[in-house]
Design brief:
This protein is mainly beta. The chain has 2 helices and 11 strands; from the N terminus they run βαββββββββαββ. It has one domain: Aromatic compound dioxygenase (Protocatechuate 3,4-Dioxygenase, subunit A), CATH 2.60.130.10. 5% of the residues lie in helices and 28% in strands. The relative contact order is 0.26.
Length: 240
Amino acid sequence: MDTSDHPESPRTTRRSSLLALGGLLASGLGGVAAWKTVSPDDADAGIGPAAVAAGLVTCILTPEQTEGPYYIASGKVRRDIRDGHRGAALDLRTTVVDASTCKSVKGALVEIWHCDAAGLYSGFGGGASSRTFLRGGQRTDAKGLARFTTIYPGWYPGRTVHIHVKVHLGGSVVHTGQLYFNDAVTDAVYRQAPYRSRGARTTRNTDDSIFRNGGSRSQVRLAKDGKGGYVATIALGVMR
């Protein structure tokens, strides 16, 4: 995929932030240390709604990141965004929190979009025949939670593995960012079909200029779901 029009420098804003558990992300719990089999009820322990309600998260303002050239304002609200595309199952759970109060935000629209196992985005290039696969939005519930059923993202030259995210609230966009994955977990996923047929990826987290500008603080916490797939959990703080 041609990434020549993919901006390299993210813009910053005080409108949005990412939540970290008092140094847990810095100590590695965003990666392999948290990569274990969990039950659905326990998957968001430490970062999800229960942690927010218990006051266990610390609000840290971070720069937003570029939306990139592959955004389509589809307005399609749905949980399952796969549209039949193959890949390792991913249960993505985002918790939206008011960064000024650390309280959960109900009714925010969380939009995500990402490439398939072949590195293609719907609506562009080889994926142009469809404008919907691996795109969609969900409203947050009373606990600030929005969940998506998707697949582990693929890769394309010049970028590390990521999912784009945008949060809408009260008719305004309050956060635009990207979610990242632990490289060791990605390596394990990419040894499986359908990813392995593409060979080794060309860009890891530390090679990606966008990731290097705050991406470590938007790395999801990963766990196995016990069924061959993964649960990815992250809390996003926004300035309302």
